[in-house]
Amino acid sequence: MSATDKPLLSVRDLKKHFPIKGGILGRTQAMVQAVDGVSFDVRAGETLGIVGESGCGKSTTAKLLIGLVDRDEGDIDLGGKSLGRDISLRALRRDIQMVFQDSYASLNPRMTILDSIAFGARVQGLDDPAGRARRLMARVGLDPDRFAGRYPHELSGGQRQRINIARALVMSPKVVVLDEAVSALDKSVEAQVLNLLSDLRAEFGLTYIFISHDLNVVRYISDRILVMYLGEVVELAPVDMIWAEQAHPYTRSLFSAMPSMDPDNRTQKPPLTGDPPNPIDPPPGCRFHTRCAFAADICKTRHPALGPMVAGSPHWVACHLHDPASGHPRAGQGVPA
Amino acid sequence: MVQVTTNIPAVPPAQRGYWSGVLSRLRRDPVSMICAGVLALLILSAVFAPWLGLADPYQGSMIKRLAAPGTPGHLLGTDEQGRDMLSRLIHGGRLTLFIGLMPVVLAFFIGGTLGIIAGYVGGITNTIIMRVVDVFFAFPSVLLAIAISGALGAGVLNSLVSLTIVFVPPVTRVAEAVTSGVRSLDYIDAARASGANALTVIRVHVIGNVLSPIFVYATSLTSVCMILAAGLSFLGIGVRPPEPEWGLMLNTLRSAIYVNPWLAALPGVMIFATSLCLNLLSDGLRSAMNVRD
Amino acid sequence: MTPLLQIDNLDVRFKGGRTVHAINDLSLTLMPGETLALLGESGSGKSVTLKTLLRLLPEKRTDLSGDIRFDGTDIMTLSGRALRSYRGGDVSMVFQDPGLALDPVYTVGQQIAETVMRHKGLSRENAMDVALDMLHRVRIPSPKRRLANYPHELSGGMRQRVMIALALACRPRLLLADEPTTALDATVQIQILLLLRELQREFGMGVIFVTHDIGVAVEVSERIAVMYAGQIVEEGTTRDVIRNPRHPYTQGLLAANLHDVARGARLDAIPGAPPSLEVRPDSCSFAPRCPMALPACRQALPPVLTPGPRRRVACLRAGETLAAE
């Protein structure tokens, strides 16, 4: 990356642990290491997809980015300004907004659609909040004359999600975090909303961070994909590269777990057994070693660092199999076929 | 931009707010309507009592003591001091209803505020508020009311204070629970994420959504409060004689049971009827508020 | 061979504040040992179909008409003991959220044993043995220990396995599955799907699997019935329906699938939204959104064409693709 190619959003060593309190005195009994040292950059205009399963920390990362949860450690830089040092949380919230998963709880049931969308603009003191809200409603495909005075329960899931998108855009943010934004929608509606997101991205020059458990959706909308497991980044690569070859054994399992679309070629064996583990007291060394088919002794003791597969490659992975100096019997050979 | 085709008709129907929907559902419920009617009658007669052309509730006559209901001139008879029962019952309604309803109204505002703050802010604030509330909760309400009233002394104002203190903790509990529930929903996160401060979020988003459950709960407390108020007066630590008040009347008419049981029962019937109507109306309100379109 | 399940002209209408014609003239045949996927989006009526089969719909608010025969017996006339024996004994169901379907105050072993005791009349000890055996069969690790666990002590994937064990403990001849993997992670979902396939081979029961995900339908079934607006618009073997979709809705669903789409390309989204079902459909419900709709489509219900044995398409124009072959 050249000096002028500075990322729009830069995250370094983000950490968030949640204490589990118990007992009579409410003492901390264990720590949920929800996000444990996550770093990544996002360039202006690109879409970074974040995938992972339950407990991987992707939702917590989203909340950390927009400041709904306070980070324990780490830096968040937006446009060169560091949160906490150079910009306040309130100022950050104008530039980075979130679209929530459509659910019953994503919109205030007692507020009209117009008020829900305009609320953010009003809070930030922007001019003409109602006008902005109406224009955005039209932009996301909902006629303001018909929908402005409606309540959320009168709309379908797809329509509510359009409202969520309009709400996120009312402050003209630079970065939009989409946390499972299309996961609750029917497939035909999902396609409509994805088209809308693509259009808006082009029109407003938005940068997306797209969090999802659905690999197909992430592949479609993202430029780069980041894979999380138990609070850490295990792989980060441009979409085409990771689709062609998954460097981390977990990523490979994740990809193989997608149901087959070919009736003559159905999946015969599950790529991983057991459930995604709990981020309380994660395993030592590489956190995936307890379920990894290629784990060796070194994996139980030494934590692999996130680094390029080969020097200069944009495809990064955190696995001893790819590090020639790791001490793994197959060091430097990659994942066996 | 392709417009989304929807199933919503081109001309939206007249926008019905949430509360008008509640009202219309309530209107269709016969039980609630009857109770509302009875209560309205009671309240109106209590409010307009001085102008209803009734006998003087304080004017007694030793000759006419404990006259049976139906005696000419006294529709419901007379009490142990010869005062007209009908007049005393209707005038008594003023005090009983006042002491019965006012504490709940006050508790709704005080308890509601405390509970919403505790529920929204959480943490140590929540702990402090809720544990203090728990201390009061540990006492049975009747005992607590008697203890506080006993300490403060008899009288309408003291009864008011004592009953308000009794009812603030339960309302706070409910308010805190409901607010905590709402607090964790996504739309609150979205509001916070747009940069609003806590007060704005509470004012715009939380209050509208927690008010109804707290309100319904508070209305269900009114019947208990009425009975407690009457009870305090019955025990002599509420309203002082010669004020007419149903609970007090129950006490003073106790000995009349041997002479004319109907007389002794009348104030009790009023308490029962009012509290039943309040209860049923509160249930009806809860059902009406629960339905989502 | 008697069909395991025969549904003829089923209509389900919900009364109440709003009328909803949830199912409209649905007919379906399932032979013993077959696995059928009911594919559809929300509002298509797929879950209502399952609930109707177990008579789980609220009686006062529901108007049912039509014929449903399980192994020759009319289930609409069942009541009392016969109905209780049918539910859970002949036909059982696996639900989407195992956290909600399992009773939190009883251990896993107790819940499985209870249903076995009730349906098979076994003693508690024997029933516990059956429960242990079922936990083995659903591949739960350390099954003996899990017998004494409460549902909240298990992870989502394990709870779903327990639910499957519970549903199969009495060896039902038909298993109904209402989106059992929708709430699970991808790596767990594939395990559960493969487990269901294996158990179906072992036990030989018929399976009706409701889902909105085409990939899931492919992995788990040999036959697919596509539902839209309370009707079956297309049915056939999985291979045939996926390779040769003939109904425009099925074609739209497959086209909207992101599996093979080029990155960033415009998606072929089906415009609009499903109908509200307040009135009984008297013309093709999909016509307002159909790229191939003709005026005739809006005037009468579409004919059901049968291009092959046990293959049907409810579309006026399905014949054209046939003729083109």
TrEMBL record, chain A:
Q: Where is there biased composition of kind Pro residues? A: 273-282
Enzyme class label: translocase
Annotated region (Disordered) at 255-282
Which reaction is recorded as catalysed by this protein? glutathione(out) + ATP + H2O = glutathione(in) + ADP + phosphate + H(+)
UniProt EC number: 7.4.2.10
Q: What does this protein do?
A: Part of the ABC transporter complex GsiABCD involved in glutathione import. Responsible for energy coupling to the transport system.
Please report which protein family the annotation says this sequence is part of: Belongs to the ABC transporter superfamily. Glutathione importer (TC 3.A.1.5.11) family.
Under NCBIfam families, the record lists: oligo_HPY
Quaternary structure and interacting proteins, as annotated: The complex is composed of two ATP-binding proteins (GsiA), two transmembrane proteins (GsiC and GsiD) and a solute-binding protein (GsiB).
Name of the protein this chain belongs to: Glutathione import ATP-binding protein GsiA
TrEMBL record, chain B:
According to its record, how does it sit in the membrane? Multi-pass membrane protein
Q: Where does the UniProt annotation locate this protein?
A: Cell membrane
Which GO BP terms sit in this record?
transmembrane transport
Where is this protein chiefly located?
A: membrane
> What InterPro entries does the entry give?
BP-dependent_transpt_permease, MetI-like, MetI-like_sf, OppC_N
| Annotated transmembrane regions | 31-55, 95-122, 142-168, 214-239, 259-281
> What is the similarity comment for this entry?
Belongs to the binding-protein-dependent transport system permease family.
Specify the protein name.
ABC transporter permease
Automatic annotation (TrEMBL), chain C:
Q: What protein is this chain from?
A: ABC transporter ATP-binding protein
Q: Which family does it belong to?
A: Belongs to the ABC transporter superfamily.
Recorded hits in NCBIfam families, A to Z, give:
oligo_HPY (TIGR01727)
SMART domains recorded: AAA
Q: Which GO terms describe its biological process?
A: peptide transport; transmembrane transport
Record keywords: Transport included? yes
Alphabetical keyword list:
ATP-binding, Cell membrane, Membrane, Nucleotide-binding, Transport
Would the keyword Zinc-finger turn up in this protein's UniProt record?
Answer: no
